[in-house]
Amino acid sequence: MKGNYVQANDNAFAAQLITFKGEIPSYAVVLKLTNDQVTSQAADADYFDYCLKCQGILQNAATQATGWKDLMRDGGSPPATGAPVAPVLPAAVPAVAPGIEARFRALVKSIKANAAYNEAMGQALGIEAAQQTPPDLTTIQPEIDAYLNGANVQVDWGWGGYANYLDMCHLQVDRGDGKGYVDLCYDTTPGYTDTTPLPAAPVKWTYRAIYRVNDANVGLWSKPVSVTVGG
Known about the structure:
The protein is α+β, with helices and mostly antiparallel strands. It folds into two domains: 10-125; 144-229, Immunoglobulins (Immunoglobulin-like, Sandwich). It has helices at 10-23, 35-74, 100-112, 119-125; strands spanning 144-149, 152-157, 168-174, 182-187, 192-194, 203-213, 216-218, 225-229. α1 packs antiparallel against α2 (35-74) and α2 packs antiparallel against α3. The protein is flat.
């Protein structure tokens, strides 16, 4: 089974857009793409790359400015380079409308629906997802966290990159009342809010989770996580 072909990391996504921009002219005719489709994607690639470069420069400038401000307030030895200088941004490129990823996905979807498309083209264009190795369902184990969020306990969990192979997550809780672990929920959306009213006296609630496939638990229970509530 293949994973998501769109890169999640911003830098990797920017590189993916640039790769596509450089390769798509070679396939535009056979895939029957219009000139507007090609130039629009190129503009999206250039502008996202520009945004990412500006972000990096400004983040670095903000770090330097914060350090200088702290030095001025608290004292110390200034760096040999002196005070930070105003950042210089790269040359601006024409702006595009928001929604670059959505437009890219729509374009790729239309390309993959074309009868002339094949996997070799997709590899060259950078739009074929890597083959995903299924997890060992006997050893797979969720990672969870629990913390107070206002009057509720938030239990964070995720698929660990294997959402395609799992159906749901079975959560249990031990409320320190002598009953041990009891079922809390069977969740299909990562992250769960435990809305059980908090007790008047302080007590430790402990949570654990295990994945499910075909209505049966698989793998190992997560390491338990605890949060003190009440009081």
